[in-house]
Amino acid sequence: MEVTEYMTKLGQQARKAGREMSKANSGKKNLALLKIAEALANNKETLVSENQKDLIAGKNNGLDAALLDRLELNLKGIDSMIEGLHQVAALADPVGEITDLSYRPSGIQVGQMRVSLGVIGIIYESRPNVTVDAAALCLKSGNACILRGGSEAIHSNKAIAACISEGLLASGLPAEAVQVVETTDRAAVGELITMDKYVDVIVPRGGKGLIERISQQATIAVIKHLDGICHVYIDNKADIDKAVNIAFNAKTHRYGVCNAMETLLIAESIAPSVLPMLAEKYQQQGVELRGCLKTCSLIPQCKRATAEDWDTEYLAPVLSIKIVENIDEAIEHINQHSSSHTESIITEDYTLARRFLREVDSSSVMVNASTRFADGFEYGLGAEIGISTDKLHARGPVGLNGLTTLKYVVLGDGQIRE
Fold first, then answer.
1. 209-218: per-residue pLDDT in tens?
2. pTM score, two decimals?
């Protein structure tokens, strides 16, 4: 079967399943999620074994450390997926919720009802856990989905897809509500992002090249983020212990993730006392430091940063550092170089913190916390389908509400317009 015919078949099945999902009640959707979790728990050895095939192939194909880190699926990772499914099942179902209901002078009541989007196409690279997270959120929000993972994770994704199908069938929902594209032909992506007859929204998760291509070529609405160039600004009124711990965690907790800090900004008046401490901790972890001229004068092992560094998402043990005069310069730098993902200020000054929250234009803005918290799981969303740096229609970690839309509902009792 050629790619166009194959993808069209998936689209037709997804559209039909989407109509069924939009009618499914919360109990049945929650049962499906729990049955999927049960299937994952019963097939841990198979999942790890299939993932090993992908890891071996990835190493042989020269995948870098960051991609291999994202690709790995171990027992802890499977347990995390299972926990995510249970969390999503425990969340309130947004579908059917009516808000802002008010009477109009005519006597009618006008409100807004939250409804599913329909069919969601999700294109992602490396991380096999995305298959479960995406399926869980799409199912709970009453959507069907077509999932196209990267070819490097094909064995892992097929194994996970089998568990999802098992759970759906056990709950009485259509197995076609979640379909994993089984061809590694890149033409499948081109088909998926132009199937506006069957797909309502595209969500890309992956490298900048992938997302740029989809944004340019898709004929369907796209929820996306391009980069995770995240900043931490240490203000001159920061608690030094907090600042050191947060700046260290934000960079070194994990490197190959979009919410890792890539640029550290620090107020000039405290840089001489704080930077040497941080530099020593980073050096112990093997982090390469690239800084402005003032930073290099305080940290001998620091390389001079180039203009390109301020606009780079490293996804690696590399950190750029800039000493700034004050919060004004910090905010100016962030708004110029940020990818609008996540920024954090470390300060004990409440007024400055509020100003940072107001003036920094990113999807997540934090006070005295690591950027690593910018995550659907940590935000209590149960899981996320991605982190949107767009302003429409969803922004930040995209959970259940981000996979629904609103329609106006009118309640009358025989009113006619005069």
1. 888 889 899 9
2. 0.82
